[in-house]
Amino acid sequence: MIQAIVEYSDTLGMDFYFVTVSINNGIMEVDSLNSYCKAFNKTIDLTQLTQLAVQKDDCPSIYFSSENEDYRFVDYGNGIVSYIESRLPSVIYC
Questions:
Q1: Fold annotation for 2-93
Q2: What is the DSSP pairing of strand 27-32 with strand 41-45?
Q3: Which of 20, 32, 53, 82 is close enough to 40 for a disulfide, judged by CB 3.0 to 4.6 Å?
Q4: Domain limits, the chain
Q5: pLDDT tens-digit profile of 71-86?
């Protein structure tokens, strides 16, 4: 499990959430750190990702879509990009 900030976009707009991210058996669980404000809970099947993009420069980030929702994680020194990338199913890269 790792803590991060996620940029989340859907048909209603874009917002940012402080979350914990855990990945087990190809399923990503994204849960808000504090459910008292901005509750956020998502379960994402990593085999169903679309528009996957990994940017590796001074500020690494990973972007993907799932079920008409867009997610972007920026690595602010917490290792979130390598955490997610190392747990992606190999079928994603085919």
A1: PH-domain like (2.30.29)
A2: antiparallel
A3: 32
A4: 2-93
A5: 999 999 999 999 999 9
Collect all residues with Cβ–Cβ distance below 8 Å to 20 and sequence separation of at least 6. 1, 2, 3, 4, 29, 30, 31, 33
DSSP-assigned letters across all residues of the chain: -EEEEEEEEETTEEEEEEEEEEEETTEEEEEES-TTSS--EEEEEGGG-EEEEEE-SSS-EEEEEETTEEEEEE-SSS-HHHHHHTTS-GGGG-
CA nearest to 48, candidates 20, 85, 88, 86: 88
pLDDT tens digits for 33-74?
876 777 899 999 999 999 999 998 888 999 999 999 999 999
